[in-house]
Amino acid sequence: MIIGIGNDIIDVRRIEKTLAKSHGELFKRRVFSEKEIAYCGKMAASAPHFAARWALKEAFYKALPEDLQPISHWQAIELIRVSGSKPMISIIDNHLAEQFLQRKIVVFHSISHEKEYCTAVVILEQRP
Questions:
Q1: What is the DSSP string of 61-92?
Q2: φ and ψ at residue 109, rounded to 5 degrees
Q3: Model confidence, pTM
Q4: What is the overall mean pLDDT for the chain?
Q5: What phi, psi does 56 have (nearest 5°)?
Q6: Which of 9, 30, 8 is nearest to 19 (CA)?
Q7: Digit-coded pLDDT (tens) for 2-50
Q8: Domain segments of the chain: what residues?
């Protein structure tokens, strides 16, 4: 049974401007995991990759049941990419991960890029 759907769209230029500001490093450390920062930092143009992760985190939060939203935070999840595979969401906050396991919640997602925009959709399904 689907228990949540979230989507988000972000202008890549907005993220690019934020990263270029004096507080850009603080923004990265506050929102993204170390693995996400390392992955995006290796790219010639990192802003689209950070933007995709931002959109995904927003969509994930929007899909969460209301009682789980208070325990979620920016770094509760990360988008990881293993060589040769599609990107995967990893719930890295132990308390949130425990709730997903107990409730048998599975995460599905999709991310798209189109020039200046990134969009993400997250669907949460509860298994019997």
A1: HHHS-TTTGGG--GGGEEEE--TTS--EEEE-
A2: -150, 160
A3: 0.94
A4: 96
A5: -65, -45
A6: 30
A7: 999 999 999 999 999 999 999 999 999 999 999 999 999 999 999 999 9
A8: 2-126
Contact 53, 79 (CB under 8 A): yes
Element (DSSP H or E) covering residue 112: strand 105-114
Q: What is 2-126's CATH number?
A: 3.90.470.20
Contact 63, 6 (CB under 8 A): yes
Query: Which residue stretches of 6-126 are H helix?
Result: 12-20, 24-31, 34-41, 47-63, 94-103
| pLDDT more than 70, % of the chain | 100
Q: How far is CA 85 from the centre of its chain?
A: 17
Please give the pLDDT value at position 117: 98
